[in-house]
Design a protein that fits this description.
Mean pLDDT: 75
Shape: flat
Helix content: 25-40%
Radius of gyration: 34 Å
Structural class: alpha+beta
Largest sheet: 3 strands, antiparallel
Number of helices: 4
Number of strands: 11
Length: about 270
């Protein structure tokens, strides 16, 4: 494959002669277009729109040349990506098949000696009460600790949000064809997980009409931290213990409801159960 990609003398010679060949092709194409244009004029008695045949032919030829140059590169890259994905898929399938042949299925999760020294497979419930250590929340809610696999905190603030939308339209045809981009901005109050600076809004007057003449409050990190995900270091599953990579593979996206907050932090107020 490498030797086939090396540049050789004949390739350079052919490239040097390409302009002359391209000129001949352009002339032939122009004659063909002129011939069919004359027939069209005689049949329908309507002349064809004026067209710079040379310029149009050059654009067509340049498009063909670019396609011929880029296509081999895209084919090579596509082949490499396809081969890489296929290799991973085959290796993963083979690993699963081999594991199924040698694994030991644990019937009693409370028997810690089951499958000792073997690759074991078990289906049991996590004992979340054994998760260590308890995970504290952050910021003003640090008084609350969660016992479980992990705790994901998402912090949002209600503020005025700017939405940018760009549309593209075309008008005219041929050499008079124009492309116009139009950008519009809309504003509304909503929840965002980061601070939005109202001073950078493109249309402050429109923002004031939608959100009111207010400025988004600053994001105070000491009492309103950014979101984060914390995990326990270990948790039991029957008589077995999960740690490290096995534990990190467990999703912590389930929302917590009716979270018992001991005391309401400063500058915070309760809204029903939140």
């Amino acid at each position: 494959l490498k030797s086939g990609l090396r540049p050789r003398g004949p390739l350079r010679t052919a490239a040097e002669q390409a302009p002359g060949a391209a000129s001949g092709a352009l002339a032939s194409m122009a004659e063909v277009l002129a011939f069919f244009g004359g027939i069209y004029n005689k049949i329908f008695a309507v002349p064809l729109p004026s067209l710079d045949v040379g310029e149009a032919s050059k654009k067509i030829c340049m498009s063909i040349v670019c396609a011929l140059c880029i296509a081999p590169v895209l084919i090579i890259i596509g082949t490499f990506i396809t081969g890489f994905n296929e290799k991973n898929s085959v290796c993963e399938t083979r690993a699963i098949d081999e594991a199924e042949e040698v694994l030991f299925a644990v019937g009693n999760c409370q028997d810690s000696s089951a499958g000792a020294g073997e690759l074991v497979y078990l289906t049991c419930d996590l004992d979340l009460a054994t998760a260590e250590p308890p995970i504290p929340a952050t910021g003003d809610f640090s008084a609350y600790t969660h016992v479980g696999v992990g705790l994901r905190t998402r912090v949002e603030m209600y503020q005025c949000i700017e939405t940018k939308k760009t549309t593209t339209s075309q008008s005219g045809s041929g050499s008079n064809k124009k492309t116009t981009k139009t950008t519009t901005y809309s504003y509304a109050m909503g929840w965002a997980s980061h601070h939005i600076d109202t001073s950078s809004f493109a249309d402050r007057e429109k923002a004031n009409r939608a959100c009111g003449p207010v400025t988004n409050p600053s994001w105070e990190r000491d009492w309103m931290p950014m979101g984060s995900t914390e995990r326990a270091t270990s948790v039991n599953i029957g008589a077995f213990q999960l740690t490290g990579r096995l534990l990190s593979g467990i999703d912590v996206g389930a929302p917590l409801e009716d979270v018992p907050i001991p005391t309401t932090p400063r500058a915070w107020s309760r809204d029903r159960n939140t």
